[in-house]
Design a protein that fits this description.
- The chain is mostly helical and 478 residues long.
- The chain has 2 domains: 218 residues, no CATH class; 218 residues, no CATH class.
- It has 18 helices and 5 strands.
- It has a 3-stranded antiparallel β-sheet, with no helix packed on it.
- Strand 3 and strand 4 form a beta hairpin.
- The radius of gyration is 27 Å and the shape is elongated.
Length: 478
């Protein structure tokens, strides 16, 4: 009997034992539903080690995962093996099917490219042990929730720690290098963030496939390491910020993608300035006596604040021009000035007045300014302009003046546009002016501006306008 046929027999025996034990313990009430699922989740990943020993043909290696896809689909539908799927319908998802599909995909590829078998092992053991133990820890000890389904900081820390250990051991024996700890950190942080943000059940596919691709690029493509560094730094920051509830889950995911992209495209100095903008703004707004939902940045706000920066970062990556670099800093300085203006202006004891007419306005209404808020706008632009000096170049003094001037200018024209262009509505029943279009327009009428120009859209338009004007002036000056 060839090793491949023996491998099929051993694989079948192993999987039946794992599933049988989980189901038996669940029926005898030794395991809860979550414990039973985690037992299978962890136990099944060890099949890769069995397959590694016996199979030398990808067709034989793919038989068991292919059967598992079919069986798990049937079990999801008919629930004939208790303890494998969640009993609570609200928690049920096709995670077991995604798991089997991941095994099948990895088997087809890596049993044809056996030199990289250790990458397949890293991918599937990360899913099994990292995600499996994270689920259990989160279930019993997860007190600090992220707001992403039922994910917790305790579960994510478990995922990170267990994954780091697994990767370190496997790399030590399969890919010895002086950078083992660094590579293990990059991969484990990436795996943790994929597990955190992947929609229900799909993490069982996205984690192993993503980890396999990520690991391959790290060990085979030297150009990818700076990208991995960017993703790792951004992930750690986003992880910490999410604990404060300062970002919604959607905003956190968008910030992760956008921040990593800007680091890769524009370098560490623009990235650091963008980080300063977000962190200082969150600190300033933390003391506002507002409901958490109003202080928490949502997806739309992050997109509107960062889109201009991303666009000019792409321009800079292709041109490496000083003009594009200055535009990046102006975009960040403008967003910082505007946010600091409203954030610090919140603490002003003076009356808020229209920037054009000088008439009193309700606190927080667009177009209104105070002396303290105006000072905040100047200081916000000054902060970014100062840090822009860290970027290399021959005209750093000119850059400083342009970033400071146009950053502060952004806040001024944002207030002016807020008066003329931003959509505002009047609630006749409450007698108040609204800046957001309510879902129910009964008793509400639009009193000024254009409907599509929301507060966030005005912010984006004014930042882009400042950047374009700055680019034109820069071309004349430099």
């Amino acid at each position: 009997m060839s090793n491949n046929w023996l491998g099929l027999i051993m694989s079948a025996i192993y999987i039946i034992v794992v599933a049988g034990l989980a189901s038996f313990c669940y029926k005898k009430k030794k395991f809860t539903s979550e414990e039973s699922k985690s037992f299978v989740h962890i136990g099944l990943c060890n099949w890769w080690l069995v397959a590694w020993i016996y199979f030398d043909n990808f067709i034989f290696a793919s038989v068991i995962p292919a059967l598992l896809v079919i069986l798990n689909c049937c079990n999801y539908r008919f629930h004939f093996v208790p303890g494998i799927e969640a009993t609570d319908k609200s928690k049920r998802h096709m995670g077991s099917v995604w798991y089997a599909l991941a095994l099948l995909t990895l088997s087809i590829y890596f049993f044809q490219n056996t030199y990289y078998m250790y990458i397949g092992a890293i991918a599937i053991l990360t899913l099994g042990y990292g995600d499996g133990l994270a689920t259990l820890v989160g279930e019993y000890f997860g007190k600090h929730k992220f707001g992403v389904r039922n994910k917790s900081a305790e579960g994510s820390f478990t995922m990170l720690f267990v994954t780091f250990l697994i990767i370190t051991v496997l790399l030590q024996y399969s890919f010895p290098t002086q950078q083992i700890a660094t590579l293990a950190l990059y991969i484990s942080v990436f795996a943790t963030m994929v597990e955190l943000f992947a929609p229900g059940g799909t993490d069982n596919f996205l984690v192993p496939i993503g980890v396999a691709l990520y690991t391959y690029l790290l060990v085979e493509a030297p150009w990818f390491e700076p990208m991995a560094l960017a993703i790792t730094i951004t992930s750690v920051i986003i992880f910490i910020v999410m604990l404060t509830k300062a970002l919604s889950p959607g905003a956190a995911f968008c910030s992760l993608l956008m921040g990593s992209a800007i680091y890769i495209l524009a370098g560490p100095v623009p990235y650091g300035c963008l980080l300063l903008f977000y962190l200082t703004s969150m600190v300033i707004e933390h003391g506002h006596k507002k409901p958490l939902k109003e202080k928490q940045r949502n997806l739309t706000q992050v997109e509107e604040d960062g889109l201009a920066v991303l666009l000019f970062a792409i321009m800079y990556a292709y041109t490496q021009s000083e003009v594009a670099l200055i535009a990046i800093f102006v975009a960040i300085a403008g967003a910082t000035a505007d946010t600091w203006s409203s954030g610090i202006g919140y603490y002003s004891k003076q009356k808020v007045r229209s920037i054009l007419s000088g008439k009193p306005l309700p606190k927080g209404e667009s177009g209104g300014v105070t002396q303290l808020g105006t000072l905040g706008a100047f200081l916000g632009a000054l902060l970014i302009a100062t840090f822009s000096l860290l970027a290399p170049g021959e005209n750093i003094v000119v850059r400083f003046l342009l970033v400071l001037g146009f950053g502060f200018f952004t806040s001024i024209i944002d207030s002016i546009f807020g008066v003329f262009l931003q959509a505002k509505y009047y609630d006749e029943a409450k007698g108040v002016v609204l800046e957001k279009r309510p879902k129910n327009m009964k008793g509400i009428k639009k009193i000024s501006g254009y409907q599509f120009l929301t507060n966030g859209m005005v912010n984006f338009v004014t930042v882009m306008l400042s950047c374009i004007l700055c680019c034109l002036l820069t071309l004349l000056v430099l």
